[in-house]
Design a protein that fits this description.
Strand content of chain A: 15-25%
Number of strands of chain B: 2
Number of helices of chain A: 12
Bound molecules: zinc ion
Distance between the termini of chain B: 37 Å
Shape of chain B: extended
Number of strands of chain A: 10
Helix content of chain B: 25-40%
CATH class of the largest domain in chain A: Alpha Beta
Oligomer: heterodimer
Number of domains of chain A: 2
Order of helices and strands of chain B: EEHHHHHHHHH
CATH topology of the largest domain in chain A: Creatine Kinase, Chain A, domain 2
Structural class of chain B: mainly alpha
Shape of chain A: globular
Radius of gyration of chain A: 21 Å
Largest interface: A-B, 75 and 72 residues
Strand content of chain B: under 5%
Radius of gyration of chain B: 23 Å
Distance between the termini of chain A: 10 Å
Number of helices of chain B: 9
Largest sheet of chain B: 2 strands, antiparallel
Structural class of chain A: alpha+beta
Largest sheet of chain A: 8 strands, antiparallel
CATH superfamily of the largest domain in chain A: Glutamine synthetase/guanido kinase, catalytic domain
Strand order of the largest sheet of chain B: 1-2
Helix content of chain A: 40-55%
CATH architecture of the largest domain in chain A: 2-Layer Sandwich
Chain lengths: ~350, ~220
């Protein structure tokens, strides 16, 4: 999957995502659309897709494997994948790049890249957006810019989101506040990542832009780069500081986490993420010569465990097998293998 | 961060209620500060969707903008719906509510001036990242394009005027406003009316623009 590829600063930035929302003139926004409107918009999207080298799929016609893939690829919600709300996807050759139809807006172009690269994620999404604008009547006003279903995105219609792994900042007293204020200065927002089932993912945060008016696309990307760079620097110095001052503690936690992940036979998601945080915290600044992993392994572990569709799709007795299967997946990744 | 109700910048002290961020004053106004006050604890917040808010805001009956009577003529959204959820129903909502609620809510961004690109052509953005972090494999560096993108709008551009049907006004004034208007936000009936007036006044250029706008919506 795309998140296994090389990226910049992947020790801190798991991925960067850009969403560009666009709407077609002549239809109400999704919350007010009739079934006929929805079918119409899907038909138009399908038509446009042909000339862009994208394939159209209806969400209500997806089989379990396809849903699993979309969950893994875009982190699409389980509820969204399993509703009959006349929604669809346009998918192409580039993994992590696609269009969701009739979700929050008529067209939500999603572009995800590994690591810290808002410029690349934006460029891919924007190229698609411009193609839609050329072949469809896209809702736009000189005063507000691109008209979106939600007031918070009107303007450029662009949302940039970085998924950040910040165990150093989280374990440093007061650092989360400093970071929140730092982001706020540029009109960005930091929120802790929470799974759809309500479990908070320790150490993982989402950084996203609040401003879509009053700045150009270039300024938005430049600000993203600046804010994310600041966070990377802060996280790095927090990790270094903790690993220097609490060397014995961190080394102990690191190797304990390493051993549990490598040999576990049953494990739940929150525990994996908690243990992975110790690995991430120590990987660069303690002596790891007795362990045989790198940031690539740590990231793969983080991503694969978080993006397991089966966690939601399982019911009853099958659910009890999940922790054993998860443990097997974790062991395999720790040993450099890949089951999926 | 800004208060999602009044737009004021928020410092260390705030209340997050069902995912909506409120400043102290607003929390007090809505009488939810005592129950839901949390100090700086970003860590334990969960973030449910904004759609859960309406019930809360209806408590604050003193909210002057929580008006359920003003409706979008096209989709039926009320000012109250929009204020509580930030969710609009259709393009025309932007026209119906733009003078009041939008100004209010757009405050949370500090600016409501659109500076982004026009439709149809991707922004010529460049990556300004120069240094890869040591020990990591850098991406192929993005080409450093020097052609800095100029804002799509000239600073001196006239603010588009809101176009409203008004029987008392003469053709000239109406057509004048339509010529300057941001057609994307003009309601269908005004476009239709304007088309007839423009044709009668032999301004075929304007009539054609209005026709195209209407046509794009209907075919849309
Ligand atoms: Zn307030
Ligand atoms: Zn409306």
């Amino acid at each position: 999957m795309w998140y296994e590829n090389e990226g910049r600063n992947t020790d801190v930035v798991l991925s960067t995502k850009v969403i560009i929302n666009r709407n077609i003139k002549g239809f109400p926004f999704p919350p007010k659309m009739s079934d006929a409107d929805r079918e119409n918009v899907m038909g138009m999207a399908r038509q446009a897709a042909g000339s862009m080298g994208l394939n159209f799929v209806r969400t209500d016609e997806l089989d379990d494997n396809a849903k699993k893939d979309l969950y893994d690829q875009f982190f699409s919600g389980y509820a969204f994948l399993n509703s009959n709300a006349k929604t669809g996807y346009l998918l192409g050759k580039t993994e992590g790049l696609g269009v969701i139809i009739n979700s929050t807006d008529h067209l939500s172009i999603i572009s995800m890249v590994p690591g810290n690269d808002a410029a690349l994620a934006y460029k891919r999404a924007d190229d698609l957006a411009a193609k839609f604008e050329q072949c469809m009547d896209i809702a736009f006003s000189d005063r507000f810019g691109f008209l979106t279903s939600q007031i918070k995105t009107v303007g450029t219609g662009v949302q940039i989101m970085a998924t950040l792994a910040l165990p150093g900042i989280e374990k440093t007293q007061g650092a989360v506040q400093v970071l929140g204020q730092r982001a706020e200065k540029y009109d960005w927002q930091m929120i802790p990542m929470t799974r759809p089932d309500g479990i908070r993912e320790n150490g993982i945060y989402i950084l996203s832009n609040l401003a879509t008016l009053g700045l150009t696309e270039q300024e938005l990307i430049d600000r993203a780069a600046k804010v994310i760079d600041d966070i990377i620097k802060l996280e790095d110095s927090c990790r270094k500081n903790i690993c220097t001052k609490k060397k014995a503690v961190i080394e102990d936690q690191y190797y304990r986490a390493y051993a549990v992940l490598k040999y576990c036979r049953r494990i739940e998601v929150p525990e994996v993420l908690t243990l992975v945080n110790w690995l991430r915290l120590g990987q660069k600044y303690i002596d790891t010569s007795d362990a045989d992993i790198d940031f690539k392994t740590i990231n793969k572990l983080t991503q694969k465990v978080r993006r397991n569709y089966d966690d939601y799709a399982r019911k009853g007795a099958r659910k009890r097998d999940a922790s054993a299967e998860r443990a097997a997946l974790v062991r395999d990744i720790m040993r450099g293998g890949d089951r999926t | 961060m800004r208060c999602e109700r009044c737009g004021a910048l928020i410092g260390n002290s705030y209340v997050r209620f069902n995912g909506t961020l409120l400043c102290d004053n607003c929390a007090r106004d809505l009488k939810i500060d005592e129950i839901f006050r949390r100090q700086n604890s970003m860590l334990e917040q969960s973030f449910p969707s904004l759609s859960e808010i309406p019930s809360v805001f209806s408590l604050g009956s003193e909210l002057d903008f929580a008006n359920a009577k003003i409706r979008c003529p096209r989709c039926g959204m009320t000012l109250k719906d929009i204020d509580s959820s930030g969710q609009l129903g259709c393009i025309e909502c932007y026209n119906t509510f733009n003078e009041t609620i939008l100004k209010n809510i757009l405050k949370r961004q500090g600016s409501s001036e659109y500076l982004g690109r026009k439709p149809g052509k991707a922004a010529e953005t460049t990556s300004n990242v120069t240094e890869p972090v040591p020990g990591q494999i850098p991406d192929a560096p993005a080409a450093k394009d020097v052609s800095a993108k100029t804002p799509a709008q000239a600073a001196g551009e006239e603010k588009p005027q809101k176009v409203q049907p008004d029987a008392a006004q003469d053709d000239k004034a109406i057509l004048d406003r339509l010529r300057k208007a941001d057609l994307g936000t003009v309601p269908d009936d005004v476009l239709e009316d304007g088309m007839k007036r423009a044709a009668a006044a032999e301004d075929y250029d304007l009539a054609a623009r209005l026709r195209d706008e209407l046509k794009s919506r209907k075919e849309g």
